[in-house]
Amino acid sequence: MPETKVLINLSNRHIHVSAEDLEALFGKGHQLTKTKDLMQPGQFACEETVTIKGPKGEFKGVRILGPVRPETQCEILASDQFKLGVPGCPTKESGQLDGSFPMEIVGPAGALKKARGLIIAKRHIHFDPPAADRYGVKDKELVGLRIPGERGAVFENVVCRVSPSYALECHLDFDEGNAVGIGNGSLGEIMKK
Hints:
The protein is mainly beta. It has helices spanning 19-26, 80-84, 129-135, 174-179, and strands spanning 5-11, 14-16, 34-37, 44-53, 58-66, 73-76, 91-92, 101-106, 111-121, 124-127, 142-147, 153-162, 169-173, 186-191. 13% of the residues lie in helices and 45% in strands. The protein is globular.
């Protein structure tokens, strides 16, 4: 019988930056300052924050997550679309930036207008290959995620992402967590189609 229970952690809006954009925003030679390790191996929260601007509004204090990436991307909550003025911002997997929205990023040393990179992150579960075997899932497979409790619900279309560089963890965003009344460290149940 495959395992079904999975640890859930919630993501707030955040940004991943390229080395080139980091220097443009924070100054030549700037390196990210780690404040804490995240559950995914090699990933960490940084001291550095930026302001993200859309056509109608902005969010200050958007945390950078390290390490630097090949391309800058900002992941917002679905409810953030209205304040930024970006209705219809696409829901995508991290790194899949074709068709993503433009944005402006402001740091202490400069500002950037990016033609793409703004997305709402698709809900997903990270698996290392042995965990994927235990749960009976494959990379890119879509599953349901049942959340128990008073405000419980089933989230559909949760992407399974399998890589040797991952640790077993489900990522929902704060909108999704608030909707079902859960916080970091909650458990959900994977439901195969």
